[in-house]
Design a protein that fits this description.
Rossmann fold; binds iron/sulfur cluster; 3 domains; binds 1,3-dihydroxyacetonephosphate; alpha/beta
Length: 304
């Protein structure tokens, strides 16, 4: 390890003790951020840890909606997002006003939102889901019809597996939606015998070609438990680091070279240390929005 990285790691450790802080990192974060974190996980795992941690300060290495969800679930804690510019373009594809319009158009439908939404949108919705629990939450939640937002692809995936009626929104993830069925076919040809696992944020025709559609936590578990040794991975490239680290004898190939989320790459070790040093930038959510959004997130915990 370089001297600079060693100094930063040492300072981070001192600051964590001084501030009673925990560092959470999403599976898409860059290697050095994953390595410095106390917990690395998917959106659902990290939300649960945020809600339950005894630490007073949460440093959230991910994108804005993730840190905001942590603040809503743990309103009395300080939540730091080391890079304020780290947003999620898909989350921006749903705004509260449009949700209200859809509720008027479909008054009998419950509103399920992907966790990839702002707090203001969650405050308008009945129940939240992540890729790890979307099907289970929709099946368990007491409604027969749902407006599902903002990801048309995850919504479509759930619609194909449930008896319930799903009204789709037109949002998508720029990183996953760009992958075509042609690319998936070519990847299979290029790496014969490899198992293809894709995130349900991919287009339906890509999901149809895959052996497994799983969230990032599901991919890690599946790759670890499976007898297969070669995997084509259809999600953001950051996951490959953890897949290889945890399964050194197995081979992992990224489905498409374009599967990079620029926002997930904005955080680095220096910014993590700086955020704890300065106790900034802090995430705040207005109380009226937070209270309503918390009901939506608490229901996800209840129904998953
Ligand atoms: P996971 O919850 O599967 O980690 O996904 C989060 C995300 O942003 C996918 O693009
Ligand atoms: Fe948002 Fe897609 Fe990036 Fe996930 S990978 S944070 S959905 S833009």
């Amino acid at each position: 390890m370089e001297d600079k990285a060693k100094i930063l790691i040492k300072r981070l450790s001192e600051l964590k003790d001084e501030r009673n802080a925990v560092v959470l990192a999403h599976n898409y974060q860059i290697d050095e951020v994953q390595d410095c974190a106390d917990h690395v996980g998917d959106s659902f795992e990290l939300s649960r840890i945020a809600a339950e941690t005894p630490a007073q300060v949460i440093v959230f290495c991910g994108v804005h909606f993730m840190a905001e969800s942590a603040k809503i679930l743990a309103p009395n804690k300080t939540v730091l997002l080391p890079e304020t510019m780290a947003g999620c373009p898909m989350a921006d594809m749903a705004v509260a006003e449009k949700v209200r319009e859809m509720k008027e158009k479909y008054p009998k439908a419950a509103v399920a939102c992907y966790i990839n939404t702002s707090a203001a949108v969650k405050a308008e919705c009945d129940v939240c889901v992540t890729s790890a629990n979307a099907l289970k939450v929709i099946n368990n939640y007491p409604a027969d019809e749902f407006i599902f937002l903002p990801d048309q692809n995850l919504g479509n995936y759930v619609a194909g597996k449930t008896q319930k009626k799903i009204i789709l929104w037109d949002g998508y993830c720029i990183t996953h939606h760009r992958v075509t069925a042609e690319e998936a076919r070519k990847a299979r040809e290029a790496i014969p015998g490899a198992l293809l696992m894709v995130h349900p944020e991919c287009r339906p025709e890509v999901v149809d070609l895959a052996d497994k559609a799983l969230g990032t936590g599901g991919m890690l578990r599946y790759a670890g438990e499976s007898q297969e040794t070669k995997f084509i991975v259809g999600t953001e490239m950051g996951l490959i680091y953890r897949l290889k680290k945890e399964n050194p004898s197995k081979e992992f190939y990224l489905l498409s070279a374009g599967m990079i989320c620029p926002n997930m790459k904005l955080t680095n070790l220096q910014k993590v240390v700086d955020s704890l040093e300065n106790m900034s930038p802090q995430i705040e959510v207005p109380e009226d929005i937070s209270t309503k959004a918390k009901i939506c997130l608490d229901r996800m915990m209840q129904y998953s």
